[in-house]
Amino acid sequence: MDAQQPRWLADDEMQTWLALARVLIRLPAALDDQLQRDAGISHFEYQVLVGLSGAPERTLRMSSLAVFANGSLSRLSHVVGRMEKAGWARRTPDPTDGRYTLAILTDAGWDKLVATAPGHVEAVRALVFDPLTRAQQRQLGDIGRRISRAVDPAGSHLDELST
């Protein structure tokens, strides 16, 4: 029995894929560069601040925060350790289940996020929204949600909060 042939991309599909691949590579780097330059933090660190800021009482289990920020628990632990030294976060055992550790955004961490967000939002606007028409922006949202559902059929809550 013959093995099923690959469904090769048509020329126009290949061009679309290559354009998306360039965005997937270059956009995160551009956002990281802006945050490093203007706020001295990485995009991952910004995502951690955002995740904590949107959580009830600015508190999340480290394991949930790692999922939200799309990083390993080890990477998150190092980042939160640096944030603790800066006074932006603290860790404490989860009082409901001591097997877990909670990360808590401090007032200083909130202040860091508030100071950082305007520059980051301006970069997102300049790099993503300004080049597009309103109709294209809506299409991009629809496309992003469709691809996200294909990548994550379980429909994790991560897409609603991250920027």
Give the H and E element order: HHEHHEEHHH
Counted by DSSP, the helix tally is 7
- CATH superfamily annotation of the domain at 41-153: Winged helix-like DNA-binding domain superfamily/Winged helix DNA-binding domain
Class from secondary-structure proportions: mainly alpha
Could you tell me the strand content as a percent range?
Answer: 5-15%
The total of beta strands comes to: 3
Unreliable spans are 157-163
N-to-C terminal Cα separation, in Å?
Answer: 48 Å
Instruction: Say what the CATH topology of the domain at 41-153 is.
Output: Arc Repressor Mutant, subunit A
Which CATH first-tier class of the domain at 41-153 would you pick?
A: Mainly Alpha
What would you call the shape?
globular
| Percent of residues in helices | 55-70%
Mean pLDDT: 93
Rg from alpha-carbon coordinates: 19 Å
Largest sheet: 3 strands, antiparallel
InterPro entries: HTH_MarR-typ, MarR/SlyA-like, WH-like_DNA-bd_sf, WH_DNA-bd_sf
Domain HTH marR-type: 17-149
GO biological process, one term: response to stress
GO molecular function: DNA-binding transcription factor activity
Describe the protein:
The protein is mainly alpha-helical and 163 residues long. It has a domain at 41-153: Orthogonal Bundle (Arc Repressor Mutant, subunit A). The protein is 66% helix and 8% strand. The protein contains seven helices and three strands; from the N terminus they run H-H-E-H-H-E-E-H-H-H. A three-stranded antiparallel β-sheet has the order 1-3-2. Helix 1 (11-39) runs antiparallel to helix 5 (107-129). Pfam families: MarR_2 (PF12802). GO terms for molecular function: DNA-binding transcription factor activity. Residues 17-149 form the HTH marR-type domain. This is MarR family transcriptional regulator.
